[in-house]
Amino acid sequence: TIMKLTNLFTACFVLFSHYLMAQQQNACIWYNKPGVIWESEALPIGNGRMGAMLLGGINHDIIQFNEQSLWSGDNNWDGEYDTGDHGFGSYRNFGEIVVDLRLQEDAQTYKRALDFQTGIHTTNFSSNGKTYNHEAFASNPDQVMVFRYSSTPNASLSGTINLKSAQGATTRAQNNMLVFSGEMPNSLKYAAIVKLVAHGGKIIATDNALHFDNCHTLILYVNARTNYKPDYNSGWRGGDPLPLIEKELETATSISFNELKARHIHDFSNLMGRVSIDIGSTAPEILQLPINERLKLYSTASGEVAPPQGDAVNSEAFNNVKLKGAGSYDPDLEELIFQYGRYLLVSSSRPGGLPANLQGLWNNSNTPPWASDYHSNINLQMNYWLAEPTNLSECAEPLIDFIDHCREPCRIASRKAFGQNTRGWTARTSQNIFGGNGWEWNIPASAWYAQHVYEHWAFTNDDDYLTNTALPIIREVCQFWDDRLKTREDGLLVAPEGWSPEHGPREDGVMHDQQIIWDLFQNYVEITNYLNTDHEYRKRIADLQKKLAPNKIGGWGQLQEWQEDRDNPNDLHRHTSHLFALYPGRQISTRLTPELANAARISLLARSGCYGLNAGKPFTVESTTGDSRRSWTWPWRCAMWARLGDGKKAGVNVRGLLTFNTLSNLLCNHPPFQLDGNLGISAAIAEMLVQSHASEIQLLPAIPPEWAQCGSFKGLKARGGYSVDCTWEFAKVIDFKIYSQKPGKVLVVVNGARKEVVCSVR
User: Fold this and answer.
1) What is the pLDDT of residues 609-639, one digit of tens each?
2) Which residues pair with 441 in a beta bridge?
3) What is the CA radius of gyration of the chain?
4) Which of 68, 76, 73 is nearest to 409 (CA)?
5) Of 605, 545, 551, which Cα lies nearest the Cα of 581?
6) I want to staple 215 with a disulfide (CB 3.0 to 4.6 A). Which of 201, 464, 530, 545 is the partner?
7) 502-512: string of b/e by CB count within 10 Å (b at 16+)?
């Protein structure tokens, strides 16, 4: 009894403390009505492996759910891009749970909310004088999703629960459970169980549904799995998923709801609570608005009316604020979009699982756009730019594992495409979870992947990881380019038959390829020098790097995209592939290569519609038009302006994403919905606050005027394993601390002055 009371007290304390933390950090978005549209109004929860989208229904509550390994297709050796049952395949919808509560839809005092710090989704409303509360979360420690429906003492819950497979499996009811299992045409087995626990009343099972009557509380425990195994040698298949599902559900239901919830919150908030930012205060009358109305107000105040997102905004509260002239700025909304990216990565990418795909892990279609795949020409990489600098390094492990697991099938595919004597490997633009490759060869894909492998060590200083995981991967990719580089008549080395992604022809020496290879070689030289290994091959790679055809400045001062000077100053193409060296690469910096940095600046101005025919045009949210308005384009350009030290232009790109490519549930759309914009903007905002790519830590390198008056951040990471806290007033740092695991000094740029700083140890 004493032990139970102690556990209950601990659970209550954890819940209360994290509730206070969430309130302090303004990490909650809410609405005053249920959602209708999955893409723009549902809210996501996830435990890294399994997730759900929630619309917060009153009488008819739909829970659409996914498990990240439910894929059609197989290993398509010849690159066939068939997204059906075989060939490349696609990520699939697992199914949905429908809870009918026999309530009237005309609820009063309705509110649904998602708390980023705790990962808890809530729906609260009253109907006919009775109050109803719904809670939902996806637990990583216990590997289940939990949905709790409760009512006040004067009310009760009666209705029906149905479980529907999106792949055609038949649901059966047994005791207090709904179960389906099946096998896809590619021999992937899948299964799902909903286990219902009720307090008061009774549960009746029919052939394919559960009926509940006069219950005070309902708790649905949900689990879904496949027999996918991330192992090429095992044929990507493991054991039957059903026994593991049953075991995990038995464990989860053996402890109290409050303890289960406390375990989830402790896990989730420990990740989310590592970083906080404060860039200003939003007017109280704006904070009183639902998030969809705040977003509408924010975007219309920017100077151009944004397309409506979801339901039209016509509430009295919104119109009152608009008439008062408030809403020209909402810094708390920008803080929310930063934390939302972190929330989405924590929810869709955890150690032991697959990486976040184009939609994270949330997908309601069997024919999702681009197969909801792993896109290697920027999208998958952008998903993980935030992991290291925003203190979520373990969330990058699924990407690194994915790269490692796909090496052998990619070796085989690369030899078939480039010759049987090819060392190393690379990938096509689209990848699936079975080592399959589809669409165009993206020849520098593996080299770009290798940058993430390197960065994980650069931010964590994990030497075991460096020796056993990073070095073998990076070395092998270097061997691929060692064999492939072509010597020109002038003796310089170029990548043959390259492509500046989705722009221009295939030809030798495109700058995108040259820059990525330069970074690859630089990273290899640094890690082998650090480990004091690979002496002879390190020298060879260093020599190859020196011979790489360099970046070039063209006739109108731009950084050339190709070897030939044919860039168009009026081109508004969405990709800026030739600026990889600026970000996320590190070949170009304002301090070490100022001429190239200025050329990159001119190219970036042109792509933003402020050069050529538009020379002298003000750089605003509206100046970037047409093809350049993409969910992933804004974050990339934001980060590049941050690297150039231009906080005003970086801030414009934050605003552009929220104005033109953000839906009313704050998910970003390309269009259509894909997650790279959400994940990328968090990385870009971190880059505006602290940078560490040029062998020093720079504080506040690119804050916009709107953030200048006062602000702070805590817990952002810098290369070298450092953690950084900073406070500023009027764009000047007034206090900061650099933490490390070991005593030592680090070079820091503070208010323009470069100095050595003694680190605090923790």
Assistant:
1) 999 988 888 999 989 888 999 999 999 999 9
2) 428
3) 26
4) 76
5) 551
6) 201
7) ebbeebbbbbb
